[in-house]
Amino acid sequence: MEKRIVILGAGESGCGAAVLAKKLGFDVFVSDFGTISDKYKQMLDEKQIAWEEKQHTEDIILSAGEVIKSPGIPNEAPIVVKIKNAGIPIISEIEFAGRYTRAKMICITGSNGKTTTTSLIYHIFREAGLNVGLAGNIGNSLALQVAEGDKDYYIVELSSFQLDNMYEFRANVAVLMNITPDHLDRYGYDMQNYIDAKLRILQNQEPGDAFVYWNDDPIIKEELPKYKHGKLYPFAESKHNDAAAYTEAEKLIFTEPTPFNMELEELSLTGKHNLYNSMAAGISANVAGIRKETIRTALSTFAGVEHRLEKVAKVNGVEYINDSKATNVNSCWYALQSMKTKTILILGGKDKGNDYNEIAELVKEKCSGLIFLGADNSKLHSFFGGYGIPIADTSSMQECVKAAYGMAKSGETVLLSPCCASFDLFKSYEDRGKQFKECVCKL
Length: 443
Description:
Blueprint: E1 4-8, H1 12-23, E2 27-32, H2 38-46, E3 50-53, H3 58-61, E4 66-69, H4 78-85, E5 90-91, H5 93-98, E6 104-109, H6 114-127, E7 132-136, H7 142-148, E8 153-157, H8 160-164, E9 173-176, H9 191-199, E10 210-214, H10 218-223, E11 231-235, E12 245-248, E13 251-254, E14 260-263, H11 272-287, H12 292-301, E15 310-315, E16 318-322, H13 329-337, E17 343-347, H14 357-366, E18 367-373, H15 378-384, E19 391-394, H16 397-407, E20 413-416, H17 429-441
Parallel strand pairs: 1-2, 1-4, 2-3, 4-5, 6-8, 6-9, 7-8, 9-10, 10-11, 16-20, 17-18, 17-20, 18-19
Antiparallel strand pairs: 12-13, 13-14, 15-16
Helix pairs in contact: 1-7, 6-11, 6-12, 11-12, 13-14, 16-17
């Protein structure tokens, strides 16, 4: 009898995995404890894949030879515990798809800058005319792309949750942007567990592979000696002996494998964090043998990522910026650091064990007002309440934008950079960002 594969979670990754498993001749069953969207139901029905929603039928699930789990489902979920106790292997969709493709994998992780760097690398590879797919946390499911017409390269954004269930998968180029506290609620509030998850990106690397990372990250520096990895390609703001990219005299300098440089002002993305994103992307493309002229052009034509420091509109001399993708404190730190004017900062949502001390000094220095947007803003009040900065308390996007409009003076900036997940009031950070843009455009 053919091996049964059960897939938990019927979103982009789960349905992609189901389509690939079916194509490979497995007996496939998809189970989602929530509701499955019509788009994915249709996809499963077309491929004649059995599915269920709003329940987990245990006798079917526990008869699986292997389970592919959506990264959003926590390890403590009762059904996951039962699968583990039954000794059934649990893997991620990326792990599964990786078995059935010979493509080169360029994989990006880190607490911040992942999506921008991933999108930037994809942009360079496309400019170079390569047969390339975008997958992982953004783009289409890797498994679906492998099933429907394989590529030569995949640019894959990996969260720590995806890395948790990856074992044999190998990143030909592994990019690690930084490691700062995030998702600690999923890692027993133990930072080391989160660090270990991120560094799984190095597992299975061979000497001919490449590891691209931020040289000045204290955690990476400390952890690196514990791991086997490919050739090291560190990037740094200022020159040091082995940096593969650094800046000097208003130039961005790439040293290896092909040395070249470009003017900093030619980069399409601004701000220090984006400089690092451009360095990591440039090195990854350079390592893949893409011509320096192509890399230069692509780094100067990239349009940026939606919900990441995205300029929405200017109303009565006030700039509105959507950084809804800032779901942790460090992301907000980067956003505030790049502000050139006094800022009304919108914070709040589902707190993941956040420590706001990291942005305390920047808030005091840059913010002329704070707007809390969440179902429960008490932690924000107790932290920022004594700063002497005007505060507005809101629980819907309409209320929030109205408060911002009333608070901001001409020449200031209203910044949505919430530090928190969106699930208390919104479907996702995308939904939060879209609502913000809609409300701003109605002002």
